[in-house]
Amino acid sequence: MQRYVTAGELSQLCNLHIQTLHYYDKIGLLKPSGRRAKDGARLYTFDQVYKLTTIRYQQRLGKSLAQIADYMASRDVTTTLDDLNQQMETVHQKMAELKLVEKMLEEKIDFLQQKFSVIQETDPSKVDVIGFPPRFYVAAEGEEFQFGNDYFYVYPTVVFHEAGKKSFGVYVSETFKAEHPLAQLSQIPGGRYFCAYHKGSYETIFTTIDALKDLAKKRGYAVSERSVCFNIIDQFVEPDTSNYLTEVQLQILS
C-alpha cells in the first residue's frame, strides 16, 4: 500500500490548487511529513488527507486561516462541540439575515410590478385624482440613514417634501405589513390625492411638485403642502438620472 502522496497527487485528490498546499506549508498550517530524496517533492501521509479535509471544512464555516490554526492546535471533543455550537449560532444568524433580504426583495418586486403595470396602462404625463387607503412606511433618519444602511434602496422608498425640508421612509406594502412591528410604522393618510409622474433627477423634482400645486389650484383643489414621492425608477434599477421616474402625490384637503 502506498504510504505517501505528493503535493500534486494530494491537490488532485482534494480538488485543491497545489499552490494552496505550498502556502499551507509556508505558514505551518499543514506541513508535509517529509521530502522525496530524488527531487525534494513534498510528501504527505494519508492521515494528513483527513487533516486537510478538516481545514477545508473549517474554511467553509467562514474561519480565517489563523482561527483554523488555533483550532487545529487545541481541538478535542469539548472544544469541537463548543466550536460546532458557535458555528450553528452563526448559521442561524446568517439564515435570519437572508430571510430579511428575501422579504425585502419580495417587497421591491411587488411594488415595481404594481407600478409598472399602472404606467404601461396609463399616460405617464397625465395628471389624475386617485383615492388611496391608509398606507404605511418605516421612517428613516434623514439622508444619513440611506448612506449608512445597505438595505435602504432594496426596499421601495418614499420621500416627503414640506416647507423646504425632506424626510425619507421605507414603504411597507399591505401584503407585508404584518411582518413589521406596528410600533415602528408611520402612516400616509388615506384619501384622495392629486397625482402625476416626474421624469428626471431628484434635484429637479420641485419643478413637478410646484407645477402640480399650481394645476391643483387652477382646478379648485386645496392640497397639502406635504408632497409624497414614491421612487419607482431610481438608482436601484437605472444608472441614468434622466430616466428616473417618481410618482408625486398631493393629498386633496377639500
UniProtKB/TrEMBL annotation:
UniProt key word Repressor = yes
Gene3D superfamilies per UniProt: 1.10.1660.10, Regulatory factor, effector binding domain
GO MF annotation terms? DNA binding; DNA-binding transcription factor activity
Q: Which residue intervals define the domain HTH merR-type in the entry?
A: 4-74
The protein's matches in InterPro entries, at most eight in alphabetical order, are given as:
DNA-bd_dom_put_sf, GyrI-like, MerR-type_HTH_dom, MerR_fam, Reg_factor_effector_dom_sf
What range does the record give for the signal peptide? none
Coiled-coil positions are 81-115
Which UniProt keywords are given for this protein, alphabetically ordered? Coiled coil, DNA-binding, Repressor, Transcription, Transcription regulation
Q: One short Pfam family name for this protein?
A: MerR_1
The protein's name: HTH merR-type domain-containing protein
Organism name: bioreactor metagenome
